[in-house]
Write a structure and sequence with these properties.
Two copies of one chain form a homodimer. Chain A is mainly alpha-helical. Chain A is built from nine helices and two strands. The radius of gyration of chain A is 19 Å and the shape is globular. Chain A starts with 5 loop residues before the first helix and ends in a 14-residue tail after the last helix.
Amino acid sequence: MLKLTRRTEYGLIALVHLTDREGEVVSSTEIGERYPVPKRLLAEALKALQQAGLLHSTRGAHGGYSLTRSADEITLGEIVTALEGRPTLTSCEGLGALQASGACDVQHVCPIRTPLQRLRTGMWNLLEGVSLRSLADRSVNPTDLFASEHEPAAILHVHARALPQAPGLR
Amino acid sequence: MLKLTRRTEYGLIALVHLTDREGEVVSSTEIGERYPVPKRLLAEALKALQQAGLLHSTRGAHGGYSLTRSADEITLGEIVTALEGRPTLTSCEGLGALQASGACDVQHVCPIRTPLQRLRTGMWNLLEGVSLRSLADRSVNPTDLFASEHEPAAILHVHARALPQAPGLR
DNA sequence: GGAATCCGCACTAGAATAGTGCCGATTGAG
DNA sequence: CTCAATCGGCACTATTCTAGTGCGGATTCC
């Protein structure tokens, strides 16, 4: 299913909270008390974020977590990657380490392998395009986060009639 | 996990194949023979697509499936919805039927509810923006499917200037 | 020394996913 | 009219993923 796990959800809650108190050291206890979140799982999410280098942890009394970088420099993509691994779409991609080894036995005939990789890339860009800051900023109009003035369909350009050279993303 | 199920994968394979033979009636057997896909599951995916109104089925000998509309008019969003339900991101949204009933007990304090809804919307637009036709068209440059002339980050508009991307995965 | 806090391991229960089998209903062809 | 191809529906199993919880150890401040 195309959705995030709770672990990620908890991690996001924590990160948004940490963004509110940027610069400070906040304990997992504090976060756990503020939101109805199983503290134990919250701790796991925080650990994962720490291991991914997104959070700095200080132990001992008065310890806690803090952002290692500015909230502007942390993307949703990184966060999701840290919490549940880089998002893949199909089994083909899951193995194969992306086109590296042609491990996918369907590869030769599989008509969707490449298209689906594009899809993943697109979704990935979407996640990469959102900073923790913008996520945490409640003053931003929801529709403005992703939506642009242009028609979404036009942006993503559906039928791909115009095929302008694209910035080599990946 | 942020990924599609195999069922969806199989459904997409079938749809791409059906797009290649647009107008014709193709049996699930034929598809199953062409690609190394468990025929049984393929049949399930096809059934789901039929029930969603994306495919027309004819029974009996020489029966099979065909697209109900032009491949241009079918979006990935519809397909995914048919095969695994409308993508949600968090539990908050899962219940609540989206902001309708305030079922989410975290709602009052949950700092990510709204932002995450935006995320979902963005991903949804992404899926809605891709037609089956463009997905099936192998001549389209992969990067062009989603990418536009504009910088992705600019489109999705974020403060972040795209960090160096870690190629490592899994 | 005690309290607060992060750290790491292991375990259970439930849900989702992947896959398979079987039989009935429908329909075209011989 | 019978046979074979094909869709349609039901039920079942095994594996993996997800969610949640417990416990004890290591650090650090007071």
